[in-house]
């Protein structure tokens, strides 16, 4: 196409091979410890979206392990109960999901007061504008996929903790309102967002991760009363599987745009993989292809853990109006959402470890399929 700028694509580093199943399972504890330490090292002090992603993932890991509270989550949330954060954007709702998880274990008036403050902002703040179909806007005039995770995970968990079906219903309705605006009818993929009421057809990887994670949680919670979320989510994940490269990690735009080809984005793969594993576990017999995609995405993403950080994670990304815009977002430093989505991938792998629908991992206590995994993570695909 005339005018394409392939500079970023041509300079992209080659992809790594995915971790072998047995290599991942043997190193899962070390990966979790490393990514947790890296998240803490980046600082989880703000009441904002990157911190919220990491804290919710840590809360999931603690629930999966022993049902208790994760000490890192407690340490970083409780100071905000003594001095409430300023709430001025939908991204400020994200840590509320982990806050709600703390309220599952015991009553805590100060934590409850902070939870209610978030609900009040969502319901009545002048910044919480809505699109004509009711979708909570990320910015006035713009509906973004990010919002379904940042607000939706909070609403779902707050509704469960408070036993308020209206909040769970709002989480569901927000997911569907966003899907109505952002899901491409032909492909099933989700666009990043809208600009001045128009959907921009850039199918950003992390947008698809946010949508998929929130959707899988709503289906698992029984909130999908009509089955529409499951139907839309299945179409999305099936489409993502059809575009998945052999190494498991999609480009920053997941549909093979020439200008972003080879510009990989690992946090999206980690989040999509986690969602796919959870969604497939709800119907093991009917979602084997989605399961296989999820496993490959997790193995592919976690191959990029270096030291304490998930690498090749794109920085915070505002809506871009053309594909090339996504090819120049920096990905050369650690990000809290990358740590969190890497931990989400680990949590989902643990949660579904004994899923009878698993199609590639070995049975517990038996050797892996080593013939398929003769290479190590240091090798690169050419």
TrEMBL record:
Annotated spans, Disordered: 352-382
Pfam families tied to this protein: Glyco_hydro_88
Domain of life: Bacteria
InterPro entries listed in its UniProt record: 6-hairpin_glycosidase_sf (IPR008928), 6hp_glycosidase-like_sf (IPR012341), Glyco_hydro_88 (IPR010905), PolySaccharide_Degr_Enz (IPR052043)
GO terms of molecular function: hydrolase activity
UniProt GO BP: carbohydrate metabolic process
Compositionally biased spans, kind Basic and acidic residues: 370-382
Record bears the keyword Ligase: no
UniProt cross-references to SUPFAM superfamilies, sorted A to Z: Six-hairpin glycosidases
Keyword terms of this UniProt record: Hydrolase
Protein name: Unsaturated rhamnogalacturonyl hydrolase
């Amino acid at each position: 196409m005339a005018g394409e700028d392939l500079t970023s694509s041509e300079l992209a580093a080659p992809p790594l091979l995915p971790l072998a199943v047995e290599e991942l399972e043997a190193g899962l504890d070390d990966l979790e410890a490393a990514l947790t330490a890296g998240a803490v090292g980046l600082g989880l002090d703000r009441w904002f979206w990157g911190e919220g992603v990491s804290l919710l993932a840590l809360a999931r890991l603690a629930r999966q392990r022993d049902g208790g509270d994760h000490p890192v989550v407690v340490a970083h949330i409780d100071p905000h109960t003594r001095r409430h954060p300023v709430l001025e954007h939908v991204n400020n709702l994200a840590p509320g999901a982990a806050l709600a998880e703390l309220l599952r274990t015991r009553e805590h008036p100060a934590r409850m007061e902070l939870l209610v403050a978030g609900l009040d902002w969502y319901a009545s703040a002048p910044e919480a504008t809505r699109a004509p179909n009711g979708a909570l806007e990320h910015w006035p005039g713009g509906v973004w996929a990010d919002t379904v995770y940042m607000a939706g995970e909070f609403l779902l968990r707050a509704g469960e903790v408070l036993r308020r079906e209206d909040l769970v219903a709002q989480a569901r309705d927000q997911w569907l309102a966003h899907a109505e605006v952002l899901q491409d009818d032909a492909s099933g993929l989700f666009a990043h967002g809208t600009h001045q009421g128009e959907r921009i057809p850039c199918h950003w990887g992390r947008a698809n991760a946010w949508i998929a994670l929130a959707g899988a949680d709503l289906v698992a919670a029984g909130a999908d009363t009509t089955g529409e979320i499951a139907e839309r989510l299945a179409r999305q994940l099936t489409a993502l599987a059809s575009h998945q490269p052999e190494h498991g990690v999609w480009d920053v735009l997941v549909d093979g745009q020439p200008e972003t080809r080879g510009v990989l984005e690992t946090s999206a793969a980690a989040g999509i993989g986690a969602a796919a594993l959870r969604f497939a576990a709800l119907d093991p017999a009917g979602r084997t292809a989605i399961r296989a995609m999820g496993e490959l995405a997790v193995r592919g993403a976690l191959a990029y853990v270096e030291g304490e950080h998930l690498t090749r994670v794109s920085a915070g990304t505002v809506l871009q109006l053309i594909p090339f815009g996504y090819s120049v977002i920096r990905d050369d430093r650690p990000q809290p959402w990358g740590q969190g989505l890497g931990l989400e991938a680990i949590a989902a792998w643990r949660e579904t470890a004994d899923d009878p629908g698993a199609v590639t991992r070995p049975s517990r206590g038996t050797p892996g399929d080593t013939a398929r995994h003769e290479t190590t993570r240091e090798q690169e695909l050419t």
